[in-house]
Amino acid sequence: MALPEVPNWLLVVLLILTLFPFLPQLYRIFSRKDSSGISAYYVFFNLISATEQFTIAFFLNMNTHKRCDFFVHDPATAGDWINLAQLGLVWILWLMLFIVYLYFPSDCRSGSKPFIVVAYAVFSLVSIVPIFYDYLAPPTDDSCGDWGPEFCRNMIEGMFYYLHLVIINKGIPVLLIVALFLQARQMLLRPEARALSRIGLAAQAVVFAIVAVSWTMRVKVPNDSTGKRSWYDEIGWVVVDNVIFAVAQGLLLCISWRRTATRISKVEEGEREPLVRG
Q: Where are the transmembrane segments (predicted)?
């Protein structure tokens, strides 16, 4: 039984709601003028995830030459473009957080920032850059020689599809889980830093949990989907990635609260101890 599609007005509401959970974190870094306490790879891996999701969505939406029979409709509907805007907004917000993190001083290991900058530049060369270039400068007769633009485009699309939906996209959930553990470790080592905004974490956990559920009803389900693997490869990846991110933010919020409660308890015990001895 097919699930009803999410109405466009609700998609717009979710798009707007996606913006606000990132603002408290950006404000916190700007107000402190310091990004200490945030793991460089927590930001980097989440940016990779957002970039990959937007890359695939852009590829499927803009691939008007030969539309796939999943994720986007043929022709594309208003909902498909809102979905693309949703993933594009998340990518832009993580990119902003990435830039702000790099700009302000932090306690990350020496060399971490240059490494993630170079690593993201390399990843962009196989993700964002190709899809923008292909959209702005599609293959022509002159660039394809005897093969022709039809053959060139089919070959390029096939390689890009295989690279991202079959290879890279499989590793994104792993990166999100690793990002969670690295940031949790950072918070446990430096509980006094309180680098992550609790309001932001709570809002991200709630909003992205709702968004994750909505993804099961906002994209075109493949007609020939026959198993879990097909569901994940074609539409399930965006659901899984959003679920993992929402759960991760919720766990980080719990860690933040727990460490603060423990610290307050130790302070209170220290204040009572002289009175007991007296």
A: 6-27, 39-61, 81-103, 115-133, 159-183, 195-215, 235-257
* 67 within 8 A of 74, measured Cβ to Cβ: yes
- Looking up tokens 């109405």 gives 7
Contact status, residue 37 vs residue 150, Cβ threshold 8 Å: no
How many domains does the structure of the chain reveal? Answer: 1
Structural contact between residues 54 and 87, judged by C-beta atoms closer than 8 angstroms = yes
User: Which residues constitute the domain of residue 113?
Assistant: 8-277
For helices 169-189 and 40-62, the axis angle rounded to 10 degrees is 160
With H, G, I as helix, E, B as strand and everything else as coil, classify residue 153.
helix
Q: Is 3 inside any structural domain?
A: no
**pLDDT confidence bin for 69, thresholds 50/70/90:** low
Q: What is the pLDDT of residues 183-235, one digit of tens each?
A: 999 998 887 778 899 999 999 999 999 999 999 888 776 665 555 457 788 78
Q: Is residue 198 part of a domain?
A: yes
Model pTM score = 0.87
Give residue-wise pLDDT tens across range 19-63.
Answer: 999 999 999 999 999 999 999 999 999 999 999 999 999 988 887
- The residue that leads in pLDDT, 251 or 139, is 251
Highest averaged pLDDT of the listed ranges 105-109, 189-193, 217-221, 269-273: 105-109
Neighbours of 129 (CB within 10 A): 13
Burial state string for 244-259 with b = 16 or more CB within 10 A and e = fewer than 16? bbbbbbbbbbebbeeb
DSSP codes of every residue in 8-20: HHHHHHHHHHHHG
Is residue 26 domain-resident?
Answer: yes
Residue 102: inside a domain, yes or no? yes
The amino acid present at 224, given as its one-letter code, is D
Give every CB contact of residue 133 below 8 A, 6+ residues apart in sequence.
none
